[in-house]
Structure formats: structure tokens, C-alpha cells
Write a structure and sequence with these properties.
- The protein is mainly alpha-helical.
- 47% of the residues lie in helices and 8% in strands.
Length: 154
């Protein structure tokens, strides 16, 4: 939902005008999609989560070294383990002002406390993305998303 907005913010153009398709894999492996998309000969940027796994970061770096037309982009640290965490880490103050939480409420995600605001974001991904989309705030784009956009436009 936010990728087109981030793309336009970074390039001044829309994904539609640049002929870019965004395909959501809904958390499943992107490798099968890559096999199909490779046949197009176009550049393919995979934006995914590292899920707190250093091996995923290492594997992506290795993959990128050996693939000219496909690259994998994800948060570079364990703190940037998922899309929402990356967005939160870049925009804490803005998100604390935008997202309403109940005093004293715990917003656990997979039985882990990530704090109220990030916890609520993780548990309400679509609602949070929509709030950001319609907001007038100028959100900072996570670095790995910027890198994907830049790479697509090389």
C-alpha cells in the first residue's frame, strides 16, 4: 500500500507511469515468483523481511552479488526485522503522534512486547498503512526501500 507513495516521493513519478508492477507475495517465498519473472528479462527488486535472521541478510547479499537483474532488499539489522519495524525506526516521533494507543494497554505481537506503538502497528498492519497513506506527514522512507527504488531506476 505504501510502496507506490514511497516510489513517487523518491522519484517524482508514479509506478504506473514507469511501468512498474508491485506483487505482494503475502509472506510466502518469493523464489517461485522469481523463477517466473526471470523470463521477462526485466529488473526485479524483491523487498522482504529479514525476520531477525542474520542468515537471510547474508543470503540476500550473496544472491545480489551473483544476480544482475534480480536483487533482494531488506532491513540490514536485527532491529529492522520487518517492514513495520523499519518504518517505525525511521519515523518514531511521527508515528507516536499519529497512532492512538490506550494507556496501560499491552500490544503484544507473537507474545512479545515491542512497545505500544510498534506493537499496535504489527497487529494492525493494513490500518496503519492506510493511516500513513492518507496522512499529510512526510514519512522517512526506510533505507532498504530507497535502495530498491534507486536500483530499479539505474
Amino acid at each position: 500500500m505504501l510502496l507506490p507513495k514511497f516510489y513517487e516521493k523518491k522519484t517524482g513519478r508514479t509506478v504506473e507511469n514507469d511501468g512498474i508492477s508491485i506483487i505482494s507475495c503475502n509472506g510466502i517465498s518469493y523464489k517461485r515468483y522469481l523463477e517466473i519473472a526471470e523470463e521477462t528479462g526485466k529488473r526485479i527488486a524483491i523487498i522482504t523481511d529479514n525476520d531477525h535472521e542474520q542468515t537471510k541478510i547474508d543470503d540476500a547479499n550473496e544472491f545480489n552479488q551473483h544476480n544482475e537483474k534480480q536483487h533482494v532488499f531488506m532491513g540490514a539489522t536485527m532491529e529492522d526485522w520487518t517492514w513495520e519495524a523499519c518504518i517505525y525506526n525511521c519515523n518514531k516521533e511521527k508515528l507516536h503522534n499519529m497512532i492512538q494507543v490506550q494507556d496501560g494497554a499491552e500490544y503484544l505481537f507473537h507474545r512479545t512486547n515491542y512497545g505500544q506503538v510498534l506493537g499496535k502497528m504489527l497487529n494492525n498492519k493494513v490500518d496503519t498503512a492506510y493511516q500513513m497513506l492518507i496522512s499529510e506527514e512526510d514519512f522517512v522512507i526506510p533505507r532498504y526501500v530507497e535502495e530498491a527504488i534507486e536500483w530499479l531506476n539505474e
